Amino acid sequence: MVATTPALSPVKARIVNAALELFAEHGVGGTSLQMIADHINVTKAAVYHQYRTKDEIVLAAAESELARLAAVLDTAAAAGSPDRVREELLIRIVDLAVERRRMESTLLGDPVIVRFFANYQRYRQVMRRLHRMLMGDDAGPRANVRAAMLLAAIGGAVMHPLVSGLDEATMRAELLRLARRFLDLPD
Amino acid sequence: MVATTPALSPVKARIVNAALELFAEHGVGGTSLQMIADHINVTKAAVYHQYRTKDEIVLAAAESELARLAAVLDTAAAAGSPDRVREELLIRIVDLAVERRRMESTLLGDPVIVRFFANYQRYRQVMRRLHRMLMGDDAGPRANVRAAMLLAAIGGAVMHPLVSGLDEATMRAELLRLARRFLDLPD
DNA sequence: GTCTATAGACCGATAGAC
DNA sequence: GTCTATCGGTCTATAGAC
């Protein structure tokens, strides 16, 4: 178990969840505090009482999604052998991507957040752990490219126009099947 | 050859290129007309003389990147047999992704643009053609997921923090190698 | 914890001179 | 084709009452 983000108060959680929904629809830069306030039927001032700047809300929203990923790692890590851990991890990452669709992808695709996370301790910590669970001791730049491709493939495919009409079950099954193949695992 | 976008005047091209650079850095919603104007040392009014709204600039920028992809398809299509076409296509898509990095990915990751492109004729046309060249006659939802994953993997991996320090040559080679494996092609 | 009201900057967009 | 000047509106953020 690694250090965890403290749970949000109910009021803050409402703000962060509203922010995530709006980010997914309008992008981070296209979402204003007024929109967030309207979405939960309070005034801007009430939002500012919880978070002092918009940046703090963006950070809290990004951390909230990061915490979901960290929780997935924790659960998978308890699966036993490295092989079973990796299998469990793939299943749960696919589930997370399908469930959260645009929220994960939009946040982690936003250039401002990408740049911020690149030097953000907690993010790097989670990514290192994820990388180790996926790739074992296969380190080095080539393993990094492979891990980046796999994560981008799962996260990005779910919001690709090519699959916009697809039912969730097929999506899940196919993502999982191809992810396994990508890692040279048996079907 | 399919219908092409008419070439931009030099002035419009300057605006669109500035917009693309700024979108990659600040996101679409985080980029203002003032920023675009400043970036090419003119006033907002001069920009408005070329494009009547910000949306028109966003569209022109997205179409510009789409045109690059279409040009890649045209070049690859001339390679001969379906196998050689696919090989050429992979090489050039990887090159495009590495060269354009955040421009492609940010634009195609923006939720507003994703939603717009999903019903945009030219985009669907290019994607259909790309899909056919990649997957041959392998149609259906499962092939769609595979194509979406491959495109997302290539486009998304290049801007992933995991590979932020990596040199371009290794990046290109490894992306290409893994893309081939993903399609069951020989190394 | 939520409100009303407001400050000051910046937004997209337009008018009209050169 | 670019400029200055300006419009009305929205933005982030704050002050102060309840």
Calculate the mean pLDDT score of chain A and round it: 95
C-alpha Rg of chain A (nearest Å): 17 Å
How many domains would you count in the coordinates of chain A? 1
- CATH C-level of chain A: Mainly Alpha
Class computed from helices, strands and strand pairing of chain A: mainly alpha
Span from first to last CA of chain A? 30 Å
Indicate the percent of residues in helices of chain A. Answer: over 70%
* Protein chains sharing the most extensive interface: A-B, 53 and 53 residues
Shape of chain A: globular
CATH architecture title of chain A: Orthogonal Bundle
Describe, in plain words, how this protein is organized in 3D:
The structure is a homodimer of 187-residue chains. The first copy, chain A, is mostly helical. Chain A has one domain: Tetracycline Repressor, domain 2. The first copy, chain A, contains ten helices and no strands. In chain A, helix 1 packs across helix 6 and helix 4 packs antiparallel against helix 5. The mean pLDDT of chain A is 95. At the A-B interface, helix 1, helix 6, helix 7, helix 8 and helix 9 of A face helix 1, helix 6, helix 7, helix 8 and helix 9 of B. The structure holds a DNA duplex (18 and 18 nucleotides).
Question: Topology of this structure?
Answer:
The structure is a homodimer of 187-residue chains.
Chain A: H1 10-26, H2 33-39, H3 44-50, H4 54-77, H5 82-100, H6 102-109, H7 111-118, H8 121-135, H9 141-157, H10 168-182
Helix pairs in contact in A: 1-2, 1-4, 1-6, 4-5, 4-8, 5-10
Chain A binds a DNA duplex (18 and 18 nucleotides) through helix 3.
